[in-house]
Structure formats: structure tokens, C-alpha cells
Amino acid sequence: MATAGEAAAAPAPRARLYAGGRTITAVLVLEDGTVFEGYGVGATGEAVGEVCFNTSMTGYQEILTDPSYAGQIITFTFPHIGNVGTNGEDIEAQTPFARGFVIRADITMPSNWRAAEALGGWAKARNLIGISGIDTRALTRLIRERGFQNGIVAHAPDGQFDMADLKAKARAWPGLVGMDLARDVSALQTYEWDETRWRWPEGYGRQDTPVRHVVAIDYGAKRNILRCLADLGCKVTVVPAQASADDILRHEPNGVFLSNGPGDPAATGVYAVPAIRKVLETGVPVFGICLGHQMLALALGAKTEKMKFGHHGANHPVKNVETGRVEITSMNHGFAVARDSLPSGVVETHRSLFDGSNCGLKVEGRPVFSVQYHPEASPGPQDSHYLFEQFVEAIDTRRGA
Ligand SMILES: NC(=O)CC[C@H](N)C(=O)O
């Protein structure tokens, strides 16, 4: 492994997985000049962003459509991506928000009873650029050692690349720190959500008569969060990221949910935090996930910080410090709440067993709590589903149900 200094001086193209005869049709160029050569998948063109890695073994379609990945190029560490194809159901948003994706093996013919389309064609139709044939283990080790890298993925079927231009673009990209992306991916208008969770054999369901009303602030919400809320009898009104406290409270919610989303929480907090603070003053139960957790922490007076390479995967152990139980969780975040910044009266409820970072908080004596990880899974284990039930119980307790 070259050191950062060597790589900056004269980075050689990384070894290709499939040598001989094949035209290089895509490249991944990192901000330090490191070049990975491979084969284009999906759309042609260029896409610049922060290169991260995701360790999930399943769920690539959910991951690529998770709006939290806006601004990021996802390296899948699992070597076989695309082999179960794509379908119209396993999506967390209508379109992918990831900037691009990096995979090891060539995509094989889809083999799954639900497959409607191959991943390459699906990506192409959605203007998503991918690159295969990459030594994703070497790339992941590089990110783990040096931290998140900005980079650019380029796909040109004729194999012609202006490397100096690509390097300059990778270097020039400003990075996610300070970037508010929630307003780009959020719904523009308020709407109601009534789809419930997927169940064999009928698939997604529709809600019967809801018995509680939750307003979900959409900073880039994954659909499965909304499905989990609807499934538990919540009428879900989704409001745009920039909704004011009045926009939220005029729906007279029994609970307010703060969603996941992309970008730097501090940048989104500029407009989100004042609204959340006013909501908190009303005493209505509040539950946040991921960016929503970070937004709640900021509203309570804590701070967030950029992580070295973040947490992205479906196999992250988290300790519930109140019960001592360990949950295997789904994660996708590059920022974290600084534990030491939590004000008095706000306590840490969950902690990562990978690096000890903060993974949850609650306000003592109040129905206000949040987690850094994704209890809705999609993809991932459902160990943490109890948090949705906890939110509903908090709502019912407050209403005297
Ligand atoms: N999944 C999320 O909500 C991500 C939150 C935030 N954008 C981060 O990277 O930490």
C-alpha cells in the first residue's frame, strides 16, 4: 500500500482484476491522484462525490436509492453485486441519490424470482454511473487508512479519459463538510403516506384506519421508515425539510419524526434546528433517525463532527447502554454526535461497539429520543424495530390512551 505522500507524487494505476484484452471503459480517480481502472456499468459520463464503502452483503438496490447517499460514491465491499437484479419494490426513493457505485465482480445475469431488470440497465435508465472490476478491498483499505476520499467516477465506452481533467475535478470538489443536501432530496410539498411494511406473500400493504397522527420531517427519508410508522397505526404526514414549526404544528401531530438524510448536519441545522426547538417546546413526542438524530442533538445544544470514514453497512453492533443488550444494526453515516457535547439532561442511550461513537440519546423525563442507526433496516436486521414501538407508546402515553 502506497503512503499518502507517495500516492500524491506519482500514483500508478491500481492493479486490475481482469487483465488482458479488455478495454478500460471506466476509471475512479481519487483526490490524491490515485487511479482505479475498470469497466463501466450503467450510465456514461462523470460523477464527482465522496467515496465511501458499504459492508452490506444484501440490499444494494435499497442502498443506492437511500437519499442519505446524495453526494457519495458507494464502494460495495461485498464482491458480487447485481446478481439478483432489480425490482420495482426494493427502493427507498423513486430514484437513486448516490452519485455512483464501485463494485468488484462483473454483473452476472440476474437470478431471482423477483428480478425485473438487470442492475446495469436499471442504473443506466436512472443516469447512475458504476464501475466494476475494481479491487474494492484495496480501495476500502485506502479509505480506512486515509479517511473518506473525494473522487470522480467516469464511464466512457471508447476508453478515452482526460486524466488531468478528472484529477483536477476530484481535487476541486469541495467535500461534504458544510454542504446542506437535505433540501435537494426532500419532498417539495406536504403529502400523506399510507403504505405499510412488506409481508409475504402479498408484498406492501395499505393502512387501515390510523389511530395516531405523526408529522415526519423529510430531510431525505427512506420509505421503509414511513412504512414502519404507517404499519403501527400512524397517519403519516410528510413535510418538506424546510418546513417551519408552524407548518409542522398546524397538522396537530401526536408525534413528530425527524428523518435521515444526506450531507452535513450542521449545514442543514441552520434552518432545521429553529423549527425543531419550537416543536420541542410543545412537549409533543419526538423521535429521530440518523440525520434526524443529529438534528435533534444540535437542537438540544450538542455538536456534530465528521468521522474518519464513517459507518455504512448492515452488520454494525450497537450497545443499548440502558439495557446492556447488543443490537446488530444497519448504518449509513459520516458524521456523528460528539458525546462530550451532550448537555445535562440529555443522556447517551446507545453506543457503537466498533468505535465507541455515540449512537443514541434521550432527553431525561421527556418523550424525546433518537438513534444514529437505521431501525427500519432496508437493508439489514430488524433487531432495533422496538424503537418504533417505543415512539408509539410515548405518543399513546401522552394522549392518555
Ligand atoms: N443516513 C443519514 O441520515 C446520514 C446522516 C448524515 N448525512 C451523515 O452522513 O452522518
UniProtKB/TrEMBL annotation:
One of its GO terms (molecular function) is ATP binding. PANTHER family: CARBAMOYL-PHOSPHATE SYNTHASE SMALL CHAIN, MULTIFUNCTIONAL TRYPTOPHAN BIOSYNTHESIS PROTEIN-RELATED. Belongs to the CarA family. NCBIfam families: CPSaseIIsmall, PRK12838.1. The gene is carA. The keyword Secreted does not apply. It comes from Futiania mangrovi. Pathway: Pyrimidine metabolism; UMP biosynthesis via de novo pathway; (S)-dihydroorotate from bicarbonate: step 1/3; Amino-acid biosynthesis; L-arginine biosynthesis; carbamoyl phosphate from bicarbonate: step 1/1. It catalyses: L-glutamine + H2O = L-glutamate + NH4(+); hydrogencarbonate + L-glutamine + 2 ATP + H2O = carbamoyl phosphate + L-glutamate + 2 ADP + phosphate + 2 H(+). Small subunit of the glutamine-dependent carbamoyl phosphate synthetase (CPSase). CPSase catalyzes the formation of carbamoyl phosphate from the ammonia moiety of glutamine, carbonate, and phosphate donated by ATP, constituting the first step of 2 biosynthetic pathways, one leading to arginine and/or urea and the other to pyrimidine nucleotides. The small subunit (glutamine amidotransferase) binds and cleaves glutamine to supply the large subunit with the substrate ammonia. This is Carbamoyl phosphate synthase small chain. Its EC number is 6.3.5.5. L-glutamine binds at residues 68, 261, 263, 291, 294, 332, 334-335. It is an enzyme of class 6 (ligase).
